[in-house]
Amino acid sequence: MIDSSDSIEDIFKSMQLIEERLEKNITSPKGPRTIDLDLLLTEPLSLSSLDLIIPHPSLHKRRFVLEPLCELIDKEQLHPTLNESFGSLLKKTMDQSCTKTNIVL
Q: How many contiguous H segments (helices) and E segments (strands) does the chain have?
C-alpha cells in the first residue's frame, strides 16, 4: 500500500521506471518476468486510460494477487466494478497453486 499525494499516473510512471531500471525481461506474453509491478487498486476506485486500467483487469482471477491483498485489506471490501467481496473472489481461485514465501529485508 502506498499513501501519496502524487497522481495515479505519476505513480504508474515511477513503477514503470523501476521495472526499466531493474531490466524487466519478458520472455513470453504470460511468462515469468524478472520483475513485474502492477497498480491493482486506488482512489478513485476505477480508472481507464490507454496505459492504465484500475482495478487491474485480471485482479479477480489470480490467487497469488488476491491472497496477499486479503491480508492487507478487509476481505469483505467489494471489488469496485464486480460488486463482489475480495474474500469471495479469493474463494473462487483456491484451485490455483500459491506458495507463500518469507522475504526478509
A: 3, 2
Residue 58 C-alpha cell reads as 485480471
Q: Is the pTM of this model over 0.85?
A: no
Residue 81 per-residue DSSP state: T
Q: Are 36 and 65 a contacting pair, CB within 8 Å?
A: no
Query: Are the C-beta atoms of 90 and 66 separated by less than 8 Å?
Result: yes
- DSSP-assigned letters across all residues of 47-80: EE-SS-EES-TTGGG-HHHHHHHHHHS-TTSBPT
Confidence of residue 105 (pLDDT cuts 50, 70, 90): low
Which of 2-6, 31-35, 101-105 is predicted most confidently? 2-6
Q: What is the pLDDT of residue 34?
A: 82
- Distance (Å, rounded) from C-alpha 66 to C-alpha 78? 12
